[in-house]
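Observation: inputs received (chain + tryptophanyl-5'AMP).
Thought: call the complex predictor directly.
Action: predict_structure
Action Input:
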Amino acid sequence: MPRFVVTPWEVKGKVDYDKLVKQFGTKLIDHALLKRLEKHAGKLHMFLERGIFFSHRDFDWILNKYEEGEKFFLYTGRGPSGHTHVGHLIPWIFTKYLQDAFDAELYFQMTDDEKFLFRRDLDLDDAIGFTYENALDVIACGFDPKKTFIFSDVEYAKTLYKTAIQVAKHTTFSTVKAVFGFKGSSNIGIIFFPAMQAAPCFFPSVLKGKNIPCLIPAAIDQDPYWRPSRDVAPKLGFYKPAQLHCKFIPGLGKGGKMSASQPETCIFTTDAPEAAAKKIMNAFTGGRGTVKEQREKGGNPDICSVYQYFYFLFEESDKKLGEIYRTCKNGELICGDCKKMLAEKVKKFLVDHQRKREKAKNVIQEFMLKD
Ligand code: TYM
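Observation:
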């Protein structure tokens, strides 16, 4: 039995990322690749330096193309089944860094169809409504309105469908069954859906009338979608899409990724700052039973969700992060104070993000692609 599971719909157990890379057949981002990226981007993003973006498919090929003068476009997305949480922001913040570094266009897919088809309890209109709610969070990340195109699958279907059926024609049921585990009882919408998620790898090339390389930044749970997309690409005369994969920010509970299905361990971008602070004060830590014991023996940052939040998103300074690690281990820093420190940072972040999110309401139509 595998000790962990990673699919586009479920992440369970303690993920062994080295094993996952072997299982999925992707490659670790090595030092040489980081150096090449740094040369073009000017600076490595914290997510690269800390190994949060850690794996890739064909990113070296994307850089070859770029160096030969062929620019790539970025493609990423969101399944709008509810409000955005801070885990979703990780690939988006990184995508913004890539947009700036490479002056790249971004196509952002909102798979309201996917969420409607997969979730029994979600009405179609609610999924479409969340497309617009989530788009505010995307815009709040600071993307360039002239180079960023957000679209709802349902509302942009006329354009997407033309490419999706090309993909579907060359993808067998056996393939998607093997990749996604579909069963006889799976609804037929779900079985077709991988062709919809593949379509944005290619339709920008169709729109522009020339082949353009595609780079997809996302967490590694989305990788199964790219396998059939990459198989089909040469059959349709397109380049294979390349990927950069990140790890999962955990929830505030014990183990597991941040997931909206456990709202008490999840920080949503729409949470009232005080409510988010409360969740943090209840977080699972690597602390001891009593303060006295912690002062004597120290805490364990390696299993602590609060430390992970500093590591992933909320402490940019390596020096300060190292200090948190060291003083936790030697018992100087106790969990109550550490949680308060994180809560203050998260509150500030939310106030700022929510201000940008409000402003995004005035410009959202500039970002949306319509048929
Ligand atoms: P969704 O809505 O499940 O997730 C949106 C993005 O967030 C990433 N993600 C995380 N990253 C870090 N830590 C976490 N705890 C965490 N949880 C989720 C996901 O990998 C994803 O990048 N089917 C997709 C929507 C989609 C898409 C795409 C995503 C359509 N086209 C292209 C990426 C790239 C979905 O439901 O994502």
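Thought: report the result.
Final Answer: The mean pLDDT is 96. The longest strand covers residues 73-78.
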